[in-house]
Amino acid sequence: MSTTSTDLAVLGALSVEPMSGYALREAIRDVLGHFWSESFGQIYPALTSLEAEGFVERVEGSRPAASLFTITASGRRRLRELVREPLPSRPPRYGALLRLYFGRHLGQAGCFGIIDEMRVEAVASLATYAAIREEIAADTQHANDAPFWLTTLDLGERSARATVEWADEARRALGATK
Amino acid sequence: MSTTSTDLAVLGALSVEPMSGYALREAIRDVLGHFWSESFGQIYPALTSLEAEGFVERVEGSRPAASLFTITASGRRRLRELVREPLPSRPPRYGALLRLYFGRHLGQAGCFGIIDEMRVEAVASLATYAAIREEIAADTQHANDAPFWLTTLDLGERSARATVEWADEARRALGATK
DNA sequence: GCCCGCATGTAACTGGTTACATGATTGT
DNA sequence: ACAATCATGTAACCAGTTACATGCGGGC
């Protein structure tokens, strides 16, 4: 049994274009990565159960032993249903911030290490977001989806920029600390 | 067996002041809530094992059947150890953004609902952050910890403000969509 | 011929939450 | 007296990851 969250991610991705389970995972990691994640251990069982329910169909791809999964008409109805339901958001567990919160026991150098790491990560995110943004702009096939994709991307960019600005300020604020 | 993450959260909180397991959970929820969470099912076993290892001690509190947990000297050493180790950050699963990403299947009104909800949440966060900020400022007992607490709080505030600004822009951007 | 990337799948495990059982204390 | 809150603990469950087993296809 798979969760409705995973079903939504899978059906949603397949509504864009048919792909293999493997490609599905890559797409989720690379494109939805900044707010979502799925592992093989969820994707394959989800595909199996979605197939049994008639929401996706497996067609033989260009090479044997590989399948392309396509979303069916009832799968699209299911997708419209799922996207309407609120999803449980997982309570956050941001390790770096926990460590920073107890930074008094870590010392200034250690705190700077954490802050710098977060900054580097945020800057890297900004770079990948810019790449994704260009991909979306270049992709005329999915012009209908583009506004929504750009909207979620925009939040990622704003968060990342906020993190970079925070990092600089944090370094200054903790610089005064002994 | 408890995780080192939980041990860090518990030892860190007890390094500020002794409290009961119940109070520990409330403190984590109310103060660390925007980047961390622990449930009773983790806290109590963690306290038991930390006690067995000599990192915390249980002293009878004002009322029987209730214990105050205090951190020991070796517990403080353990805390300094733990805060130095990198913690695994849990991959994000932000349900609202997943739904918004597939917003084409949801329609404009549904998307606005999600965006507005996120905005309301962010505004509420800003209010609680402001309250926490005042608490920290008023708390002269823990002036040594204050800079670190304010730093993590600052990131929360920046993220929340970024979300509010994003929400307004998102509404405008998707307003054009049919 | 061999390694690497694509591809599918599952079993075991871990991390974490929820629900429940139990009871003391406080306030009304 | 009763309800609400404080308090401790555990067992069952669920979600999700990791590791493993297996094999095909394409490039070097």
User: How large is the radius of gyration of chain A?
Assistant: 20 Å
Backbone shape of chain A: elongated
Give the distance, in angstroms, between the N- and C-terminal Cα atoms of chain A.
54 Å
For the largest sheet of chain A, list the strands in their spatial order.
Answer: 1-2
User: Structural class, from secondary structure content of chain A?
Assistant: mainly alpha
Main beta sheet of chain A, described?
2 strands, antiparallel
Largest interface: A-B, 61 and 61 residues
Unreliable stretches of chain A (pLDDT < 50, length at least 5) are none
- Listing every helix as H and every strand as E from the N terminus to the C terminus, the arrangement of chain A reads HHHEEHHHH
Overview of the structural elements:
2 copies of one chain form a homodimer. Chain A has 178 residues and is mainly α. Helix content of chain A is 65%, strand content 6%. A two-stranded antiparallel sheet of chain A has the order 1-2. In chain A, helix 1 packs across helix 4. The longest helix of chain A has 32 residues. The mean pLDDT of chain A is 95. Chains A and B meet through helix 1, helix 4, helix 5 and helix 7 of A and helix 1, helix 4, helix 5 and helix 7 of B. Chain A binds a DNA duplex (28 and 28 nucleotides) through helix 2 and helix 3.
